[in-house]
Amino acid sequence: MAAFASLRSSREIFSHRLAARRADAIIASVTHFTRRQIILAGSALSALRIAKALPLSQFRLGITTDEIDDDLAKAIAFLSSFGLHYAEIRTIWGQYNTVQPVEKLREARAMLDKADIRTSVLSTAFFKVPLPPETPEGKAALDKEWAVLDAAFERAGIMGVDKLRIFGFTLKKGKAADKAAYPRIFELLKEAARRAKARKIRLAVENVGGSYISTGAESARMLEAISDRNLGLTWDPNNAAQSGEKPFPDGYRLLDPSRIMHVHLRDFRHTSDGTVEWQPVGAGEADNLGQIRALLKDGFKETFTLETHWKSPQGKEYATRTSLAGLLKVIDKV
User: Fold this and answer.
1) In angstroms, rounded to a whole number, what is the distance separating the alpha carbons of residues 318 and 316?
2) pLDDT for 126-159, tens place per residue?
């Protein structure tokens, strides 16, 4: 119990009597745990106390659940232990949400509701494919994508969310973006926005490496070309860095903040050969503090997701716990 005794002695974290009473309750409930479980519980409790001191009611923070665990129950328990009330749903129980039967989505919604957790965005792989050619084969490939979008619409309704993460087509392996392809890509995104508007759904295109929309500059061109307000951006500064851009402030200043619907947060660093590798938040180069401050100053009231990506030999939950601890320290300075 030394870990808990140490926590009780930390007055800067445990400054409220209510928090102390909750700590006592948790301590009493884990006396049968193993030493490792107690240490992990202490770590979670410590971060929860920090989180309680933050303006999380004004900072709508969630985590991509499959970066905690594919088992949604375990991911929910993790989120609840940190007092977080948002979740980005991508893969659950080993399959993309758009592939899971609707009955499984209803089960997931019930579990989230019971834990007072909302789906911040439903992550899909819509248009995360090479741009289909204008041929019969290409039309068949596009039909498959429209089917993915229809499945996402149905599941968004079940999950009680009006926001889908989508993409802007991937590049052919080893090939640069074909500039002549952008007009057709924008027309297809406009068509997707038209279909989504009829369902009262918003589409948040993620900038991602290896796609036609990978940086702030490319995102800005997309938003300028597509005026539909129900199509916006999932802004991922780290993906922009991976694509060779300085995401903040350079990439971000090109964007219309009112078109940013969702934000992914994590950390990165450049290796000696110039490539980017993911890091736990706080151990890399990402200016998360500057980016978050700028977003809030610009009136951003949408959702943030910790999308961990950094991998640890100790597993996904440990990696996410480590990055979340670093991110909460950043948020505490906002």
Assistant:
1) 5
2) 999 999 999 999 999 999 999 999 999 999 999 9
Whether the per-residue pLDDT at 17 is higher than 60: the answer is no
> Are the CB atoms for 104 and 93 separated by under 8 Å?
yes
Nearest to 84 by CA among 120, 37, 108: 120
Cα(56)–Cα(52) distance, integer angstroms: 8
User: Using an 8 Å Cβ cutoff, are 94 and 101 in contact?
Assistant: no
Q: Report strand pairing: 267-270 vs 260-265.
A: unpaired
- Residue 59, C-beta contacts closer than 8 angstroms, at least 6 positions apart: 304, 331, 334
Read off the amino acid at residue 191: E
How many C-beta atoms surround the C-beta of residue 113 within 10 A? 11
Q: Render pLDDT for 92-125 as a digit per residue (tens, 0 to 9).
A: 999 999 999 999 999 999 999 999 999 999 999 9
